[in-house]
Amino acid sequence: MHGFQPWNPQFYINPLYLPASGDAPHQVFNPDTREPIGLNPSCTKDDVHTAVAAANVAHTLWRLLDTDQRQALLLQLADSMAADSELNRQIIRQMTRELALCVAEARAELDHCAAVFRYYGALADSDVPAPSPSGAAQCRLRYEPYGVSVHILPFTLGIALLGRTLAAALAAGNSCLVKPAQNASLSTLAFMQHFAGLPAGLVSCIPGDAATGQWLLQSSGTHAVAFTGSVGAASAVAVTCAELLKPCAIESTGRGAMIVAQDADVALAAAYGARAAFSRGGQSCLSIQHFFVEAQVHDQFVRHFIEHTRNPGHDSSSAVRPLISQAARHKVRRLVRDALAKGAALLAGEQALENPLPGSLQPPVILTEIDDDMVITQEECLGPVAVIRRVSDLGAAAQLANDCPASFEVTLFSKDPAHAVQLAQRLLSARVRINPPPVPNHPDSEHHWTLSQLAGDLSPRALDAFRRPKRLLLGAAAAPATQQAPVQAFAAGLPE
């Protein structure tokens, strides 16, 4: 079995697709039309062992590959992902059918992957021994890959996020095992075709459930973990890795928050906020769910926000998409109904609560009059829901933003830059945006704008999640040059 076939349950060990051994593949449906589009494979422990064994063999070769060769291969991958090719058109078709993305959104994820591989590919030659302060006559510092890395992904922005960790791990010299989200397995498997030209076994994709992820984490043949997903799953991954003393890089965030000061450009803040809340159906860690608006401009902000809220649909100009599943829509409706029962005001989306639309389409919901006892203030809602809260001052807004569950980013609008920076220092989020520029009006530009928000996180330091430092200390009484060759070879990362 050599090619990607959505109706044949498969897993991937480059360059081949292999039959998955699990007994119970289940049908995958288009979230928009409910049309069956393939079978979601279920891998067994034996499948995992096969992939882990292949990855360890591939790693021994990849880590010793000349850095120029490794760099060239990663840059070739970037070119392949960016190309207007039949392969990429096939991947985009799969993404639009499985994830209910429009073509521009899927294309933007591939373009983002290409940019990330180009960025980390250029860093593949940075692993060079360098002097380091030491009492020894000579000290050489270099970085070595951990070995086999495990990459566990969410469905939202799954391809884009996969590119970020996969490119860094490969650039650092690791082999990679990918565990996609169950409702994004077919798209991820299709994307794997890009890696067919790498050394055999270097990149694998192992679809499955939580048990599959645990097998990968607990295997003695895996050595580092990159996880992106929910807080609950992240906790389980962290516990497993801690027990095994296995390094892990965890990104687990809820949807973002926005603070609007009374001196802000309210119309601009509302336009930005509506787009950030409802783009991609609100199913992104880059989406904004919580809005904290100073009382003096609250009503004005709400009026502008409603004006900028788009109608649902499934074309490239629509801000709302079908949710990934009907279960996701049920969660949105549960959280909204809980808020309404406790006194929230519903300013948009009431018709969909009474008469659900076909498939899993969920129109935008705007809630105001929010209290702390509403579940939606503490539980992430991956859907097009904006929770707008009136606050007495910016201090109260900062406290509420800090209380948001696992919020990675806060966006702040204020015409006083000095005050905004001072407020940003009180926020606990990893990133604060102050007065960001307007979102492009053209739909295709909007989708690339969404992914461009991730680009600011690219850094050479990301390589450190997949490598460890090693120092070689040479004494003052150095051996004759002819006897130093093995030591020099070791310091350069080559076998004796």
UniProtKB/TrEMBL annotation:
Keyword Oxidoreductase appears in the UniProt entry: yes
Domain Aldehyde dehydrogenase: 25-442
InterPro entries listed in its UniProt record: Ald_DH/histidinol_DH, Ald_DH_C, Ald_DH_N, Aldehyde_DH_dom
Single GO term (MF): succinate-semialdehyde dehydrogenase (NADP+) activity
Superkingdom to which the source organism belongs: Bacteria
UniProt cross-references to Gene3D superfamilies, sorted A to Z: Aldehyde Dehydrogenase, Chain A, domain 1, Aldehyde Dehydrogenase, Chain A, domain 2
Class in the EC hierarchy, top level: oxidoreductase
UniProt-listed Pfam families: Aldedh (PF00171)
EC number: 1.2.1.79
Keyword GTP-binding appears in the UniProt entry: no
Keyword list, A-Z: Oxidoreductase
Protein name: Succinate-semialdehyde dehydrogenase
